[in-house]
Structure formats: C-alpha cells, structure tokens
Amino acid sequence: MDQRDASVPTISRLGPFRASVATFGALIGSGFRRYATYRQATLAGTFTNVVFGFLRCYVLLAVAEGAAGNMPAGYDAEQLATYVWAGQGLLSVIGIWGWTELADRIRTGDIAADLLRPIGPVTAFLAADLGRALHGMLTRFAAPLLAGAIFFPLHTPARWQTVPLFAVSIALAVIICFGCKYLVNATAYWLQDARGPIMLWTLGSGVLGGLYFPLRLLPDGFVTALWLGTPLPSLLQTPLDVIAERDGPVTQIALVALQLLWAVTMLLLAGLVQRRAERRLVVQGG
C-alpha cells in the first residue's frame, strides 16, 4: 500500500475568533465608508459646530469673569475654553443625537432580516457606530479645536497620562452612548413608535451629559448622584474634564474607570433587552 501523508486539515482554535474579529472589523469599515460618502454634510456639520463653539465659549467666559476668583466650579478661563471647543469636536464623535435606525427597522419589520444574520443586532450596530465615530474623529474633531486655538487661549495638558486617558475616555463614551441609544430605540419593540422616548433622549442627553454647560456648575450632591446613578455624565462631561485637567490624576483615572463600568453595563442591558424583544417577536409570530 502506497504510504502517503494521511494528515487531515483542522481548524485552528483561533479560527472562529479571528473570523469574528475580521467580521467586526469589516462592519466598522462599512460604517466608516457609509459616513465618508457624505462629504458636504461633514463640512456643513463642522462649520455649524465651529459657529456654536463661539457662542458657547463667549457665554462661559462671561460666567468666568463674573465668578469669584474667575474660577467657576474650579475651571479657569483656559479650561473653560478647552471644555467648549473639545466638546464641539466630540459632538459628532460621540453622536448623542440623530440615530433612529433600529427603531425605524422595528417599525417597518426589517428587523426580522437582521435577526436571521449570523451576527446579532447589538454587535452589528455597535460595529457600525464605531465606524461612524472613527470617521467623526478623523474629519470633525480637529477643526473646532483648531478654531478655538486660533481665537482663544486653550489649556495645554500638563500631565503625560492626560492624552491617553482622553483617548480611552472617548472610546468608552462612544460605547456608552451607543448602549443608551440602543435602549431608547429598542422601546419600539413594545411601543411600535419610539419617537417619544427618542425626543426625551434628545432633550435630556445634551443637558445632563454636559454639552451645554459643565455639570460641576450644579450643586455637588446632585452632580454626584447624577454621575453615579446615570451614564449621562460619562458621555461628554468625563472626557472633557479629563482633557481640561479639571481634577487630579487619581480622580481622572476614577472617572474613566466609572466610564468602563457604565460601558459594560449598557452593553449588557442592550443585549438583555434584545433577547427579551426577540422572545416577544416569536410570541407575536414575527
């Protein structure tokens, strides 16, 4: 009998993991290309962010001039300017407004096709949102900061860990925001029309997330309860406080650690709600 190599090709244990990572990366790239298509909208949105940056910056600087010691809530003028202009740059990166895709697909019934795919809706939409955030970071973050640096003195980070913590904080804020938006959109599984919850999210996320003004201007007890009891301050307030170096290194790390906790919590809640919704769809015959 002719002796030949009888070895049988086997799948590596890392094969499924690598395939999952490749698929997730492909979905991120798809989300990036989707938003990269709208170049004029990107330019218009950047211009709008810069215009509103001037309005917000002058208002907060006026507040600083009228405060005792010119340090409202512990921010000096440079930190307030950095807070405003970094916030304008992060607005499109975090993406707290405008996402209704899940609710729309539930209302039209297209979500049934998503449930037949090998990747669940939470993972697929998360990857697409990370691609959107990456596009916003590369195209719309720098312009407001540059405009602010030209016309206002901005705070330059004095600690080496601030910039890495800021980058991690942004990534966690994107994940937290996605989880919040997913839960708000998922109310359409039960309500059929999620416009009410989406409107409440639009109104509340900006105010309680730290977009319009630093939450530290509010009473300390209320801010602490808001920070620990809700994920909203982790959307913008935390990354902006990190880059402005409002707090010491230990507090900076603690705030980012709290963000990590909220990111894990929101993803788990999104997955739980999605599983409950799928059982509801089965009962309804969907």
UniProtKB/TrEMBL annotation:
Q: Does the keyword Transmembrane helix apply?
A: yes
InterPro entries per UniProt: ABC-2_transporter-like
One Pfam family, please name it. Answer: ABC2_membrane_6
Q: Which UniProt keywords apply?
A: Membrane, Transmembrane, Transmembrane helix
Segments crossing the lipid bilayer: 41-63, 83-100, 138-156, 162-184, 196-215, 253-273
Q: What is this protein called?
A: ABC transporter permease
Record organism: Actinoplanes couchii
